Every structure is written in structure tokens, then in C-alpha cells.
Backbone:
């Protein structure tokens, strides 16, 4: 007999109760956040965390983000300096992940941190993840709920299509509002751009480290760090990838290409007819899923400006196109 399909339940007390029971028993569940759908497990249970890696086919050297309900819970797990606390106060709950020194004795399995002395931590804004955190009373490790290096899921059906029976329960609360993964910051370095832009982050740092008129100085404060050994999720050169070849900065399409447009460049689909970067970010992975399921052999994407949210969109597209 084929493996059973995952159970998809609409967000509500019954679904959250069932998910909490699964997590208490060392299981995994898929749950929406404001960024993408996450595959959640008890961050302190090494066997449960191993189930995340197995379900995703994710390499164990790639650390996971730990989700907690508030700043106080985060401070019980990690050591904050003044800059990190300022960012947390301003942007939490929300799509910001901080990479911080792990507090001695914190109940986080070493598999979550990939054996590093730091932990990636965030306070989500989404009602479903917050409800699950409250119901479990545990910090939850939760990478994106898809096969490793595949297109991130922004809808419950994306999770089912990618993971199938590897996840027993998917909580469906519609499409994710931000649509791309959280911004990740370590110290004064942006490890992964996301919904919170570099310009938004700069005012919270000490004035001596804030932006100057010299672009080289700006790069010393904020840079995209792609380490040989990832210190946070989303740093692999090839990531977020469709199964088909992807061509960037396309102003038109070949007959065998599905064109994802932006602004004045129309296509088979579009990120935003109005050229709105917020709309484009929210639609990005959904559009890539549709393109990957289309009858065309290849995918092309129109140019997206690199400023503001465009930095994060182009980061995801460049990794998706990497072969």
C-alpha cells in the first residue's frame, strides 16, 4: 500500500492541539509562519530534530532556526548584546532571525546548531506558529517545510507536494504574507537578506557603525556572507531551486520557457504588474512553483530591482538559478 498522505487541517484549536500532541511525542508538523511554512519539532529533542533533517533530506551541517514566543524566551536560550536587543525590541515578533551565542545549558539539541556555539533564533508574528509555541511550551526548530534545496513553501499544498507522507500533519492557514524567509543577522552582518531590509536595520546600530557616504564602509557593516560551513540557514550557493533550469534578467522568453514577469515585462505569470517589491516577494515562491509545474522545459524571470526588498528577491533567485 502507498504511504498515507499527510493530514491537512485548517488552523484552529483542534489542529493546534493535535500538532502539540505530535510534537510532545517527538514528531514533526508543518505550520505556517509569516515568511514560509515551517517544519517544526521540539528544539530540545535530538531525535525529533533528526526527523526534520530526514524528512527534508537536509545536510546535518546546515543549522536550523529556533522559534520562541517572545524576547524573554529568546534570552533564556541566547546571549544578547545591546545591538541584538535593540533589533529584537524593534522587529520582534517578525521576520528577523538573530544569530547569537548559545547560552550554557540552554535546552537546544546540538543537531539544531550543527554543533556551533551560536544559535539562530526568532520570534514569529504568525498566529499559527505562536499558538503552537503556546500549546507546546517548547522552543521549536522549524526550517522551511520542503525538500532540501527545493522551492520554499508558501501554501499548504506546496508542503504536501514536496514532503508528502514524510510529514503527518500540515496546518493550513492560507498563503504566507511575506513569502520569503526571514532576514538573518549576526552581529553587524546580514547573513541572509529578507523582508526586513538593510536600510531598516542600520538605525539600530551604534552611530559609529552606521551607514556613511562611502559604499565600502557600508559593505563593512552589512555584507552577504557565504561561508564554507554555514553559520545560519540559506547560505548554500544552490538553494530554493526549481527542478527546471532558471534564467534571470529575462526581457523576453524562448518558446520552451515559462516567463515570470515583473512591472512592464509581462509573462505567463507575474510577480507584480505594478512593480511593487512587497507584492513580488509575497508571490515569488508561489510563482516558481507554478512555473516548475508548467509544461515548459525552462523558466525565465524578468529583472527585479536590487534595492529594498529586491535585495532579498534577487538573493533567492540567484541561489535558485545556481547549478
Residues:
Amino acid at each position: 500500500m502507498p504511504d498515507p498522505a499527510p493530514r491537512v487541517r485548517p488552523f484552529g484549536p483542534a489542529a493546534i492541539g493535535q500538532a502539540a500532541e505530535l510534537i510532545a511525542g517527538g514528531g514533526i508538523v508543518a505550520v505556517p509562519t509569516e515568511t514560509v511554512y515551517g517544519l517544526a519539532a521540539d528544539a530540545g529533542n535530538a531525535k525529533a530534530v533528526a526527523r526534520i533533517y530526514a524528512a527534508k533530506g537536509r545536510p546535518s551541517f546546515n543549522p536550523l532556526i529556533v522559534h520562541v514566543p517572545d524576547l524573554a524566551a529568546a534570552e533564556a536560550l541566547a546571549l544578547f548584546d545591546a545591538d541584538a536587543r535593540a533589533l529584537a525590541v524593534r522587529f520582534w515578533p517578525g521576520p528577523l532571525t538573530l544569530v547569537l551565542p548559545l547560552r550554557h545549558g540552554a535546552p537546544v539539541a546540538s543537531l539544531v546548531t550543527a554543533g556551533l556555539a551560536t544559535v539562530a533564533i526568532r520570534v514569529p508574528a504568525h498566529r499559527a506558529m505562536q499558538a503552537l509555541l503556546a500549546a507546546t511550551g517548547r522552543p521549536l526548530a522549524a526550517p522551511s517545510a520542503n525538500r532540501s534545496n527545493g522551492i520554499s513553501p508558501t501554501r499548504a499544498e506546496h508542503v504536501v507536494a514536496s514532503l508528502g507522507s514524510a510529514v503527518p500533519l500540515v496546518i493550513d492557514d492560507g498563503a504566507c504574507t511575506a513569502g520569503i524567509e526571514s532576514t538573518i543577522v549576526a552581529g553587524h552582518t546580514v547573513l541572509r537578506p529578507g523582508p526586513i531590509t538593510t536600510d531598516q536595520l542600520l538605525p539600530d546600530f551604534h552611530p559609529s557603525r552606521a551607514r556613511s557616504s562611502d559604499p565600502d564602509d557600508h559593505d563593512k557593516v552589512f555584507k552577504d556572507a557565504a561561508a564554507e560551513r554555514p553559520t545560519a540557514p540559506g547560505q548554500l550557493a544552490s538553494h530554493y531551486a526549481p527542478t527546471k533550469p532558471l534564467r534571470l534578467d529575462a526581457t523576453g522568453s524562448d518558446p520552451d520557457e515559462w516567463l515570470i514577469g515583473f512591472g512592464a515585462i509581462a509573462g505567463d505569470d507575474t510577480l507584480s504588474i505594478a512593480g511593487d517589491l512587497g507584492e513580488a516577494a509575497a508571490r515569488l515562491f508561489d510563482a516558481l512553483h507554478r512555473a516548475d509545474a508548467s509544461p515548459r522545459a525552462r523558466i525565465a524571470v524578468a529583472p527585479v530591482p536590487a534595492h529594498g526588498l529586491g535585495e532579498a528577491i534577487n538573493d533567492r533567485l540567484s541561489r535558485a538559478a545556481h547549478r
Observations:
- The CA atoms of residues 119 and 308 lie 27 Å apart.
- The first strand starts at residue 7 and ends at 10.
- The radius of gyration is 19 Å.
- The domain at 7-71+108-172 is CATH 3.90.870.10 (DHBP synthase).
